[in-house]
Amino acid sequence: MAFPLLLCVLVCSYCSVALGGNEHGFVVVPTSSFVPAAACSTPIGVSVGNPDPTRASVPLAHRHGPCAPKGSSATDKKKPSFAERLRSDRARADHILRKASGRRMMSEGGGASIPTYLGGFVDSLEYVVTLGIGTPAVQQTVLIDTGSDLSWVQCKPCNASDCYPQKDPLFDPSKSSTFATIPCASDACKQLPVDGYDNGCTNNTSGMPPQCGYAIEYGNGAITEGVYSTETLALGSSAVVKSFRFGCGSDQHGPYDKFDGLLGLGGAPESLVSQTASVYGGAFSYCLPPLNSGAGFLTLGAPNSTNNSNSGFVFTPMHAFSPKIATFYVVTLTGISVGGKALDIPPAVFAKGNIVDSGTVITGIPTTAYKALRTAFRSAMAEYPLLPPADSALDTCYNFTGHGTVTVPKVALTFVGGATVDLDVPSGVLVEDCLAFADAGDGSFGIIGNVNTRTIEVLYDSGKGHLGFRAGAC
Predict the structure, then answer these.
(1) Residue range 89-98, pLDDT digits in tens
(2) Is residue 442 flagged as an active site residue?
């Protein structure tokens, strides 16, 4: 009687896996699920996630997907190729690691010497939100970036030679009753980093005191300059941030792409997160959709401790990179598993820490860890033929031609404190049929890229000093 029972268990286990179960660390998915739909599956105006009256939420979309607002680069410009995305992504990752190590380059722009370490590569950023700025509020579609602090939008007066074409009409500060420039002698201006965003004082022909100037040069050569200002910012239909400090850009040059500006979500004082800390406790979260054809959300504030939604999070300690480099959010990996089996990786390999970055696509981990992951993943995927490397960094890519379904091993990341996060399959593990991890070199900082966090609500809570993950949030 034991043999039939064993046979039944084996058959049932196989059936479960074949239908998409994951009892043995594998998930069977249709290859059609790898391809984004042509139409938005979750319209940008529809609420996504768990509504919480103590938090402020806005929908989030991929800039090149059908859920992006009409008229954005998603519809007006050809989507960059995978090779172009990888080049931008690699450049951004290198730039972040240079900044984290304290190295920087200076470049001359418009007669002013601007530190290029201030901004990442904006052409690698992939997700946008729509906000209201001014009174009355004017919609602006901006990129989100945890690797930037100072937010900005393009402002009138700005002609075609000084600003790039964007999705929405330029923000006109003269039509807002709440707009104000920040005086050069004010504390807010003096607090801008001297070797950072500060761009001296701007000349004012109206007899008013000199205005506070700002300037940022991003790693890809894009530049924004203008006046440091305050304005009312609306997030969704109910949350309003008064006297929000931002850059009113009058001179933008470089490889920009239709978006109206940038929303800085880093940890430094200039960011939206820091400016709203008295209300939202220095916490925010986002959920990136599994495919470009879906919508996610960006939320300020952490779930109320009495709210049941909080029970879905697992947490790990989080800290700023250093007191001098407060922008980045750092956590520490301790292990990786593939197909339900922990890999033999000494935790000390991850000792440098990992920057969690919304704008980096591919996750970079130390060489020792990457080799172990690659070996285990290739072994689990031995049924499918490998393709030539898509890039010098991505060397585990597959040919799924002729397969209606693909059996993919689950990949889980474990962090200090025991928080274990199962990446979504396939969207959190594969990108363009390639393993979404790369070799970052031993002894180097790692970067957790945005592919790994798809469908997961990532909660950055600086007030409590931890990072949370909630699976299946969008």
Answers:
(1) 877 887 787 7
(2) no
